[in-house]
Amino acid sequence: MGRKSVSKSKSGHQGTIKEGSLTIFARGNWLHIRGTVRVRGETFRPRRCLGLASDKEENWEKAREIARKTINEFQEKVIHGVQQSASFSYVAARYIKSWVNYKPADAANIEELLQGYPLPKTRKRQRAEPLHAVHLSNLTKRRIADWYDKRFPTQGAATIRRHQNTLAAILNYARDELDETVHGFTKKRIEKKSGRSLGKRFLPGEVERMIELAPEHARPLIATLYVTGARTEMAIHLKKTENFILVPGRGKIFFPDSKNGNAYIQPLHDFAVTHLLEWIEGRKDGHEEMFLTSNRKPYSVRQGYGGHIKTMFATAREALAKEIEADGDPERAAIIRTFTPKWFRHNFANALRAGKSDLKDIMEAGMWKSPQVIMEHYMGEAPDRVSEQVRNLPFGTKLTQRKKVIRK
Asked: By the 8 A CB rule, do 165 and 187 touch?
């Protein structure tokens, strides 16, 4: 086993680790290896980025495993003449360095690929392998399919397809730029159905009542998501002074980042401004973040994971459902129990559509990059003139009694 040095990186982790003749060290946000491997008079000097984040303790042990495999590869090459293909982590690291336009979603997906579930066992390999250590020649179509079946057992096709697009980009890069032999795989097929989100609307007063029933720390966040249609991960880390202008009638909210990497400023409805001002006035902490957890601490940063407000939202949702059920409307209560935070985004777009906003206005208000998303999800409702024509069609006319004609 190698020994750890006493130097430390900025993240607080060990700065270097020795594994055999190789050194593992942190540079920027990533782990690297370098050193010299001598086998039967031949000398090799590997030096590369591993594609593993340096601020996670478990990655250092993974890096040691990669270093051991690297030494074994050189030994196999010299002693037995075996030349293995590049490892997935090496190709992913090269792909990251090749980026021209940085995409946060791709970065999160790559991190998930490197950190996620191991590849399943095969006949030749009796134990599961972590994906970051697998060589491309062993990354077969079947193993990729099995990996996604285990990682995303219940997710929709669109979620899986976005993740697979990143994997495909890495493999294409390995084939086109690194001359590696890669196996193809089948991406998840998405069946596009227009108007899938048209029914995801809140009835007047439902969200307002849910906010009243929610815990104190949840009210300003729910109100903000309600009036902006923002994704949860875009809002929970916003700062009080940097991202909000809380002036009634002139409120604004600034999102420094979005799923597509763009920043935008949006008008802030007075309903949210009022809740945010009440929230700030009642706080006695020194945190700059606008939204806090039930323990009055800022939300943690989770790359590639959701669920920040899952419990809080479920508590408020159930309280509303019970009230609606007690009022004698169990059917609506059942629908309320299907609410998710994503409904705020659907409701926002549907409300703009009902307010006669055109496609461009809806895209700018909710920071949708592709008009195709709006067309597929929210443009299925008939325009007012068509609605009026349909309502005036002579359906339901009663049959009048015919008069008998007497012929002479």
From this structure: yes
